Amino acid sequence: xxLLVGCAFDTVNEEVKIYLKVQGALDAKQELEKIKNKMADIxxxxxxxEKVINxxxxxEKVPSHIQEENAAKLAKLLQECEFFEKESSRxxxxxxx
Length: 97
Hints:
By secondary structure, the protein is an alpha+beta fold.
């Protein structure tokens, strides 16, 4: 995944992320706060889904196609979390310069 210096970004959906080259000042603190908020939201979703998946009787009671959907959702959340962790590290490094 490519990370660009001096860019603002936003997530359109799970497959599309937008990077905009920013001229002038980029408020890295504001962007970092935005990332941390998204990470907190993703973490809540992940914990909720893991609770469902790890519930007693889940394997026996939940149809396999729902289990597959939940596994795909969890993988997507983990991927998004990884992306935002990298973005957070990148911005923190930029702020340290």
